[in-house]
Amino acid sequence: MADSVKVQGWCPTAWRPMQAQDGWIVRIRPHCASISAAQWRILSGLALSHAHPQLELTRLGNVQLRGVEDAQLTALRSGLIDAGLVPANVDADLAPAVHCSPFYQVRDRTHELADLLSAAVAQHLSPRALQQQGMTALPSKFGLLVDDPAQSLRGISADLRLWVQPDQAGLGYALSLGDSSKRYGYTSAAEAIDAALQVAIWFARQRMSAAGAAPTRLHQLLKTQQPELSVLKTAPQYAAAPGAEAFARPVKPGLHGHDWVIGAPLGRIDAPAMQQLAGCLPAKTEIRVTPWRSLLLPGSELEAAPLSTAHWMTDAADARNRVSACTGSPGCTQALIPAQTLALQLAPHTREGTEMHISGCPKLCALPGDATAVVFASTGNTGQLLLNAGPPGRLASPTIQIPCEALPSEPAGIQKLIHELSI
């Protein structure tokens, strides 16, 4: 394939947005995965007045607005700050992200761990804090994650992962580095957080002297060197229990215990639909964001809320759960096809058990870890627009490669295409 793709070097925030084909991308990182109904109303209103009328859920549990014009950036940021959705200063906003499992009870140990870790990261790992120690800021792709005791997020990538673990001989908190299966046990949240901070600072310092391009993720540096830190050496170490490292399947829409998980097609929420939903709920109702591009709501509150099937998914069997897509054209400068439109066309003809991702270019942005099939566009050596498909691990030699103009637009033709792709 003749494509040359450009990989963006940072993850956008409110204070450091990213320029896209359709305007600025502004990202909100919900504290402890939670946004109140009142805040959702404000956020939806800001999307309607300052951006595209849509809220995007990311696969790390963030929310972002697209299509923001230069003249709207300051007013949008002010609105987000006033609503308590983003920090009031740039230094805190540019501190590493702390993602959190949505599965916790208010003020339980998981919630307290995430709350304490978020405060510690903002204080000790912000660009200014590291600069005062003679180090450059951590890469924006570097992130920490607080999981629940069941480790529901073990399929989500993180540089440092912390969680509450029951029944571990007094070691109530665990830490793992990168994608390592080794766990370090600690008796208190403070000890686990201190260890995580020390590893992050070690990474910030060591990456400055790394040969070649500086690593942006911890696992890259761990391939060549290990942190010789007393907080790791003195901590009890143990391997994951058999089966514990198995990939965690995404939580699908539906009733889970007493709570509802509701999805939005392709993780894109219509702003008026969100306003309507949030407007039916008490202002302080928590609507948590999941890393599966869905929302978690209390079941008792959802009973009276209107949920249009055009905008929401409440059934795990909904075919739209089987597809995902990048932004695609015309929103992305590198996309060769309207990936989202194609994904929704393919959804009704994608068999159950298949997780299909559509990408507008070979960069494969937003590729979920559980994808079983990928369809992406590329340009051939002669400039011809091609559609490629195959399993995620074998895309260098796609199962099938056809000219894009051969892609049928009728449902029957799409069904035939999927059959031919052996997906």
Topology:
Elements: E1 18-20, E2 23-28, E3 34-36, H1 37-50, E4 54-57, E5 63-68, H2 73-82, H3 90-93, E6 97-100, H4 109-124, H5 127-131, E7 143-147, E8 160-164, E9 173-177, E10 182-186, H6 189-206, H7 218-222, H8 230-233, E11 237-239, E12 254-256, E13 259-263, E14 268-270, H9 271-279, E15 286-289, E16 294-298, H10 299-302, E17 323-325, H11 339-346, E18 356-359, E19 373-379, E20 385-390, E21 400-403, H12 411-421
Helix pairs in contact: 1-2, 1-9, 4-6
Task: Summarize the structure in short.
With 423 residues, the protein is α+β, with helices and mostly antiparallel strands. Helix content is 26%, strand content 22%.
How would you describe the overall organization of this protein?
It holds the Pfam family NIR_SIR_ferr. Residues 19-80 form the Nitrite/Sulfite reductase ferredoxin-like domain. This protein is an alpha+beta fold and 423 residues long. The chain has three domains: 18-92 and 249-302, Sulfite Reductase Hemoprotein,Domain 2 (Sulfite Reductase Hemoprotein, domain 2, Alpha-Beta Complex); 104-147 and 156-239, no CATH class; 320-421, Sulfite Reductase Hemoprotein, domain 1 (2-Layer Sandwich). The chain has helices at 37-50, 73-82, 90-93, 109-124, 127-131, 189-206, 218-222, 230-233, 271-279, 299-302, 339-346, 411-421; strands at residues 18-20, 23-28, 34-36, 54-57, 63-68, 97-100, 143-147, 160-164, 173-177, 182-186, 237-239, 254-256, 259-263, 268-270, 286-289, 294-298, 323-325, 356-359, 373-379, 385-390, 400-403. The strands form four sheets. The protein has a six-stranded mixed beta sheet with strand order 6-7-8-9-10-11, covered by helices on one side. A five-stranded antiparallel beta sheet has the order 1-2-5-4-14. A five-stranded antiparallel beta sheet has the order 3-15-16-13-12. Strand 4 and strand 5 form a beta hairpin.
